[in-house]
Structures are given as structure tokens and as C-alpha cells.
N-acetyltransferase domain-containing protein
Amino acid sequence: MIGGNNALRLPLSRALIPAGALNGEIYVVVDEKGKIVSYALCFAPGQSLFQTTGKVSARSKRKYLGETNIWYLNVLATDPAYQRRDFASSLVNDVFDKMHSDTHWSGL
């Protein structure tokens, strides 16, 4: 999404979190100062980051957005200064627990 331009990493994260909050679920790890250091952004069946407000047929949704009974983990990110502390692994486990408790397929 950033085309190799690391200067876009933080602005992209700052945009994805509130955008994801509209239709998805956000799981975060914060440090002792309250700074988000790792996050996972996922979407329940029938939801996506880029949704349209127009009418889209069920057939078109399946064709272009995939199956509607699948959870998607769209973003998993950790601040480089906080990597190798198992934060992302913990978030993935939390997300998978949620997905599997809902008895739907999950996708990465």
C-alpha cells in the first residue's frame, strides 16, 4: 500500500485505524504511555475496509469481494521499535479466537 515509501507508513496507519473502525474491528497493543505499538484490523463476514454505499448485487459482491461468510485480517502492523516482543502474535491469536468463536472461515 505504500509502494516501498516508508515515509507513508505512519500516515497510512493513522488513516486505516479510523477507516477500519467504521466497518471493522481493531485490536491494539499499547505501551505504558498509551501509544499504540501494534494493531490488527479485521472485518467480519460481509464487511470490508472499502465499502460502497451504492447498491451492489450479491453476485457482484461474491465475484469482487469474495465469500461473504469469511473474516478477513486486513492489516497487522507493529512499530519497528517494538518488534520481536510477540505483540503481533498475540493480536493474531485474539483475532483468531474471535473468528473461530463466530464459526466462520478466516482469511489472512
